[in-house]
């Protein structure tokens, strides 16, 4: 099944305003950054490709495992940051020595939709602060322009 980039962007933007809720993934009710990506996946592809295990807010600080990136690699295509396009997934790390633990979806060349603790899902600029923390980029499966 092919998915249009415009559909990814529209679905990500449809989550804007959803309150932050750790481990949740319900549009308009609550989600965290992973829950946003999971919800977009369900809207576009149907069932999630694997179950998400419970995770603590500080899971990345407690382990050196790149579990978010490894899961993305199992279901998406890793791309170079120079290949980024609207509809792609971004993974960020807060500190250089910790695994990537934050996800966002590119909606325009300099914009992304993401959820973070203490705020509702928002579309924000991919400012230099974010670009410095970009660890991985992925393309959703079977994306067409």
Set down the secondary structure blueprint.
Blueprint: E1 3-4, H1 5-14, E2 25-26, E3 30-31, H2 33-45, H3 59-62, H4 67-75, E4 77-79, E5 89-92, E6 102-108, E7 111-114, E8 122-125, H5 128-133, E9 134-139, E10 143-144
Parallel strand pairs: 1-10
Antiparallel strand pairs: 2-3, 4-9, 5-6, 5-9, 6-7, 7-8
Helix pairs in contact: 1-2
Task: Give structural notes.
This protein is an alpha+beta fold and 145 residues long. It has one domain: endopeptidase fold (from Nostoc punctiforme). It is 29% helix and 25% strand. It is built from five helices and ten strands; from the N terminus they run E-H-E-E-H-H-H-E-E-E-E-E-H-E-E. The strands form three sheets. It has a six-stranded antiparallel beta sheet. Strands 1-10 form a two-stranded parallel ribbon. Strands 2-3 form a two-stranded antiparallel ribbon. The longest helix is centred in the N-terminal third of the chain and has 13 residues.
């Amino acid at each position: 099944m092919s998915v249009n980039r415009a559909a990814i962007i529209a679905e990500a933007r449809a989550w804007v305003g959803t309150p932050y809720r750790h481990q949740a993934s319900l549009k308009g009710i609550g989600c965290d950054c992973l829950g946003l990506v999971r919800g977009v996946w369900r809207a576009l592809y149907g069932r999630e490709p694997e179950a998400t295990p419970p995770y603590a807010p500080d899971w990345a600080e407690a382990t050196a495992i790149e579990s978010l990136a490894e899961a993305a690699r199992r279901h998406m295509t890793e791309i170079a940051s120079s290949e980024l396009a609207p509809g792609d997934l971004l993974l960020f790390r807060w500190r250089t020595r910790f695994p990537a633990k934050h996800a966002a979806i590119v909606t325009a060349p300099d914009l992304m939709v993401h959820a973070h603790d203490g705020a509702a899902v928002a579309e924000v600029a991919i400012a230099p602060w974010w670009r410095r923390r970009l660890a991985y980029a992925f393309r959703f499966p079977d994306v067409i322009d």
